Amino acid sequence: MNRKNILVTGGAGYIGSHTLVELYNSGYKPIVVDNLSNSSLNNITGAEQIIKSKIDFYKVDCTDFEQMNKVFKEKKNIDAVIHFAAFKSVEESVRHPDKYFSNNIRSLETLIDLMNSHNVNNIIFSSSCTVYGTPEFLPVNELAPFGKAESPYGETKQLCEKLIEKSTINSISLRYFNPVGSHPTSLIGDCSADKPNNLVPIICEVASGKRESMQIFGNDYNTIDGTCVRDYIHVVDLAKAHVMAVNHILNNTKIKTAYNLGVGKGVSVQEVIDSFQKVNNLKISYELGPRRSGDVEKIYSDNTKINDELGWFPVMSFESGLESAWNWEKLKN
Ligand code: UD1
Questions:
Q1: Does residue 176 register a pLDDT over 90?
Q2: Ligand 1 atom closest to residue 228's alpha carbon, by position in its atom list
Q3: pLDDT tens for residues 254-289?
């Protein structure tokens, strides 16, 4: 089989590793670059076990021009790049904004330079619904303007989208809502080295006893039960959308677009905790706490554009996301 080469930066990370599996299963050859700073080699070996094939892996930092240049030279025919590699903690970005600006922007600039010089014309960029800030209308669609960024992390996503927009490269930015879950095999998952900041990984840590308890950040929002509302999307559905974006960009010329990637349904923090307890048949110890600064009250996606243009629809249930997240937590160490 003559597989097209897809360079996946950050392929040892959470969403990256799930995308490797879906790319391979759809006839592509993923090639990974990752500096393993907030990811794990286990995700590469896990993906290899799932697809029963070796994956080319380079331990390289995306901001390192020379090393990245070597990869582009060695691989010669790269058909498209999926750029996941980035720092992703909202909270850390507030404490260390420079770290976020220098890494997240510089890695993309390096990539664009190299893509230009090696004649690689297609990029799928890992963006976030955070680019909308607090949207005026819900569900939010892609016509909504970029809002005031709630964090330096959010600002880097906005700046990266703008950088890509200005480049001559064909591009698709995928604006993720809140990814949850793991591959059904539990062989790959969220391997971030940092203490998790996201809701479901924190719930999992409470369930496993790694944390004694957790807080719900605010219960006085104007929502169904006072807690914040988000749009939780199963990571396998998310990964499949990347393959559809690759298909689309390789089959069309002159593409510059962005798609929302959520399920289109708002779920409150309280509902997530309740569902997690029910699906996994266990009790989570939590208390009500103050609001977390920078949190948006509610945000969920209008998926019409990606439904119509790529034919992508989510198929995995929210409950299966919570179940697989817990299975991963139990098996990951
Ligand atoms: C944000 C971004 C998202 C980005 C992600 C990266 C927005 C709208 N979303 O997600 O695009 O990819 O960061 O990390 O900006 N919560 C608790 N207790 C906890 C942890 C979380 O109540 O211990 C609540 C939060 O207040 C929030 C919800 O759970 O309402 C989800 O939080 P989290 O998982 O951190 O994701 P976002 O902040 O929505």
A1: yes
A2: 30
A3: 999 999 999 999 999 999 999 999 999 999 999 999
Domain annotation for the chain: domains and CATH numbers: 4-179+231-262 (3.40.50.720)
Mean pLDDT within 154-178: 97
- Pick the catalytic residue: 24, 28, 58, 153? 153
CB 123 within 8 A of CB 83: yes
Residue of 176, 205, 217 to mutate, ligand 1, most atoms within 8 A of C-beta: 217
Q: What's the angle, vertex CA 240, arms to CA 238 and CA 245, rounded to 5?
A: 95
Q: Which atom of ligand 1 is nearest to the CA of 154?
A: 15
Least Cα distance to 257 among 199, 308, 293, 181 occurs for 308
Closest Cα partner for 316 from 304, 325, 306, 328?
A: 325
pTM exceeds 0.70, yes or no:
yes
- Count CB-CB contacts under 10 A for residue 257: 18
Mean pLDDT of 77-102: 94
Distance of CA 91 from the midpoint of ligand 1 (Å): 10
